[in-house]
Amino acid sequence: MAHDEPTRAARLLDAQAKAERLFAEMEERGLVAPGEGERAVSDRVRDLANELFGTTRHWHKRIVRSGPNTLKPYRENPPDRVIGADDIVFADFGPIFEEYEADFGRTFVLGDDPVKRRLRDDLAQVFAAGKRFFEADPDITGRQLYAEVERLAAEAGWELGGWHAGHLVGEFPHEKIDGADTESYIAPANDMPLRRTDKAGRTCHWILEIHLVDRQREFGGFYEELLTL
Question: Is the pLDDT of residue 35 over 60?
Answer without folding.
Answer: yes
